[in-house]
């Protein structure tokens, strides 16, 4: 009788344990789905959708994330590099992968422009590798601009940042921007809050979007020449003196080739410590520190420094908005087979374009 009772108790306990494990797994799955649920408070541009590849390439997001987990395990610095490429793409001509194009006979590509010279070439290789993996699985149906947008999202998530859904359906541009256009459209590190507020407003991004997107500097590095104007010949009075002395050790001259982490507290983790840096006057760029100096943005910086979840929520909204700037959709542009080059056109397609152009001129 005792033996039977023990067996029943053991069976009962095992069932309870199984139920607990099952409930935990369901809870985790529900939480994951909730995190990935589309934001209803962010409008989606016509031509994009939250389920664009549901039939054509349903596993595209899994393919990209699985590969990036391997990549970041080897080099977490590539997460910040990919995120930066996405910013630099969207701010010049829109989120249409023009920054991925190599130069051609028509001129140098965007990567040759001064603000893009420090973009990591290894990150471009990663994007092209993702292109090959996705194409092998689904064919030539997913654009490079969508791959870049998803890779930027995963760079945030795999560094400890928030999970969020990305509207998809972008097409790739047929041309890159000129060096002049690239330089004119990328906010420089020496820009003050007033210039940044106007620049972002021109792109339909508000002050909160500005401060939230600047939080991308919670990961990554910067080269000395991008901030040594705050050290030489005169030190910026808004900079913490101990921090300045540390930077002078890293960058003994204004044109030093050394690098400095953007967030001194947790440089490889996507968190809200960037805003803590700003409150301690340890922001690296003028464009960073002035967000705490300027009264219009200071309160937002403080609120993000205090509440990481608040920062994550606003960063998610700002990223989704930014990733839809001036996108190409439908029959616009193309879907590149190689992210660094336009698709090869047939002789007949070139001839047809020439004929259409001639007719237009006439």
Average pLDDT works out at 89
Cα-based radius of gyration, to the nearest Å = 24 Å
Structural class: mainly alpha
Overall 3D geometry?
A: globular
Termini separation: 102 Å
Cofactor: heme b; Ca(2+)
Enzyme class: oxidoreductase
InterPro entries: Haem_peroxidase, Haem_peroxidase_sf, Peroxidase_pln, Peroxidases_AS, Peroxidases_heam-ligand_BS, Secretory_peroxidase
Subcellular location: Secreted; Vacuole
What does this structure look like?
The protein has 362 residues and is mostly helical. The protein has 2 domains: 60-185, Peroxidase, domain 1 (Orthogonal Bundle); 193-320, Peroxidase, domain 2 (Orthogonal Bundle), CATH 1.10.420. Helices cover 52% and strands 2% of the residues. The protein contains 14 helices and 2 strands; from the N terminus they run ααααααααβαβααααα. The chain has helices at 2-36, 60-74, 77-90, 121-138, 144-157, 179-185, 193-201, 207-214, 241-250, 273-279, 286-293, 295-306, 308-322, 347-361; strands spanning 221-223, 259-261. It has a two-stranded antiparallel sheet with strand order 1-2. α3 crosses α4, α3 packs across α5 and α12 crosses α13.
């Amino acid at each position: 009788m005792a033996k039977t009772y023990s067996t029943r108790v053991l069976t009962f306990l095992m069932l309870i344990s199984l139920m607990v494990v099952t409930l935990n797994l369901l809870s985790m799955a529900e939480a994951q789905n909730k995190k990935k649920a589309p934001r209803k408070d962010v409008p989606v541009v016509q031509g994009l959708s939250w389920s664009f590849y549901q039939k054509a390439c349903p596993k595209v997001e899994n393919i990209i994330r699985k590969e990036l987990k391997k990549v970041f395990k080897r080099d977490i610095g590539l997460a910040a590099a990919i995120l930066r490429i996405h910013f630099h793409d969207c701010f010049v001509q829109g989120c249409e992968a023009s920054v991925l194009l190599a130069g051609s006979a028509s001129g140098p590509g965007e990567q040759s422009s001064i603000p893009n010279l420090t973009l990591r070439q290894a990150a471009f290789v990663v994007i092209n590798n993702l292109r090959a993996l996705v194409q092998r699985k689904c064919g030539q149906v997913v654009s490079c601009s969508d791959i870049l947008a998803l890779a930027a999202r995963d760079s945030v998530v795999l560094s400890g940042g928030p999970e969020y859904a990305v509207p998809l359906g972008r097409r790739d541009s047929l041309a890159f921007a000129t060096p002049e256009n690239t330089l004119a459209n990328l906010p420089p590190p020496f820009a003050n809050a007033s210039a940044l507020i106007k620049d972002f407003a021109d792109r339909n991004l508000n002050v909160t979007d500005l401060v939230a997107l600047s939080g991308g500097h919670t990961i990554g590095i910067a080269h000395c020449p991008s901030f040594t104007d705050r050290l030489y010949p005169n030190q910026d009075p808004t900079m913490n003196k101990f921090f300045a002395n540390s930077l002078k050790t890293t960058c003994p001259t204004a044109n030093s080739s050394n690098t400095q982490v953007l967030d001194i507290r947790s440089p490889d983790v996507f968190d809200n410590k960037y805003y803590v840096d700003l409150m301690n006057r340890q922001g690296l760029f003028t464009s960073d520190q002035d967000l705490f100096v300027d009264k219009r943005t200071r309160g937002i910086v403080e609120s993000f420094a205090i509440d990481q979840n608040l920062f994550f929520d606003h960063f998610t909204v700002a990223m989704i908005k930014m990733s839809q700037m001036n996108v190409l959709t439908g029959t616009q542009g193309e879907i590149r087979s190689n992210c660094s080059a336009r698709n090869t056109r047939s002789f007949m397609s070139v001839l047809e374009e020439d004929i259409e152009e001639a007719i237009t001129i006439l």
